[in-house]
User: Fold this.
Amino acid sequence: MSIRHSDPRVQAVIDFFEQLQPADVVGLGRLYTEQAFFKDPFNEVRSLAGVQQVFAHMFETLEQPRFLVLDALAQGDQCFLSWDFVFQRQAQKEPMRIHGSSHLRFAVDGRVAYHRDYWDTAEELYEKLPLLGALMRWIKRRLRAS
Assistant:
């Protein structure tokens, strides 16, 4: 069940990401400005072409990637989304789920000019990998406050 938001800019972003398919990457200009800034734990780009490359890479390397928007808060020209990103890799039988959030700023024309994703790469990704996961969990236990 998709959430609904009264701000049409926010609703357009929710609808777009929840329905995102590989063919939609070329149309990202309807949602992002030409000089859009995008940053996540692995990428930092400052152009529409860069944003398109990030999402094209996602579809090239993952199977069935999809976003599920859980919450949306907006004030003025800013928006904060919380979401789950669900995907599979070829060698995996079970889908992986990453919980994260996005901070968006809208340009005057209503398109996204700033998009910053926040998620914990250690907990949401590295700890779920066989060898690296054991090391990350050990480090986490050692650093935990007693």
User: Anything to note?
Assistant: The two ends are 40 Å apart (CA to CA).
